[in-house]
Design a protein that fits this description.
By secondary structure, this protein is mainly alpha-helical. It has helices spanning 6-15, 22-33, 45-59, 104-117, 126-132, 153-163, 166-178, 180-199, and strands at residues 70-72, 78-80, 85-88, 91-95, 133-135. It is elongated and about 60 Å long.
């Protein structure tokens, strides 16, 4: 499974272990297939159950991987350390493990993302991966000769939505929580700088909230 299947996993966890109603089965099928519930085809109940059974068999068929590199995050859960690098569509992305060595723009963009998509990237979780993994050999928000960002965080988010395995994302989420005590004070500093900028806006600024990079 990939990050795009997170809605399905969340729905499954929300309902817990019980006998599901046909509507609940349809809701989970729609979530897994990323189709709005009101647009999901009106199958027979028997067919809905077959689809759900097929999904459950598919997500439980992968090999179980054991890794000694585990840690306990701030939420009290145990996670496996995320990989140092990942490769998707021929590009390698490296994990930025030391949050103290990233530019101010990184923290300011996270602060903006929290305002737009909810604290902890609730409405767009793939952004967390896009902030933690950056193209190998490039700094965050590298600009070309025309001052155009060539490695946009939003572009990375799209790639990770399609390709990052869900278990990798969940462990990365644990890593992010684990490093929160380092990130939080730096994020507060960036937030203070943004407030100063808001009080002294640049001429011709639109004032619209958006990710800077």
């Amino acid at each position: 499974m990939r990050i795009k299947h997170l809605a399905f996993v969340s729905k499954l966890a929300e309902l817990g272990e019980k006998e599901y109603s046909i509507r609940e089965v349809r809701e989970m099928n729609a979530a897994f297939l990323q189709v709005p519930f009101d647009e999901f085809p009106n199958y027979r109940p028997m067919d809905d159950m077959k689809i759900f059974t097929t999904i459950c068999k598919a997500i439980n068929s992968g090999p179980k991987q054991l890794d000694p590199n585990t840690f306990v995050a701030a939420d009290g859960n145990e996670y496996i350390e995320p990989p140092e690098s990942v490769e998707y569509d021929g590009l390698t992305y490296t994990l930025r493990k030391d949050f103290t060595k990233l530019p101010t723009s990184w923290y300011m963009d996270i602060d903006i993302a929290f305002e737009i998509h909810g604290e902890g990237f609730e409405q767009m979780p793939e952004l967390m991966a896009a902030f933690c993994y950056i193209e190998k050999g490039l700094p965050y928000a590298q600009k070309d000769e025309n001052k155009v960002v060539v490695n946009s965080v939003m572009d990375r988010a799209k790639v990770f939505t399609e390709h990052m395995p869900l278990n990798t994302f969940m462990n990365l989420q644990g890593f992010f929580l684990w490093r929160w005590n380092v990130l939080q004070p730096l994020l507060m500093e960036a937030r203070a700088k943004r407030r100063t900028q808001k009080r002294n806006p640049k001429p011709n600024g639109s004032g619209k909230k958006r990710l800077m990079h």
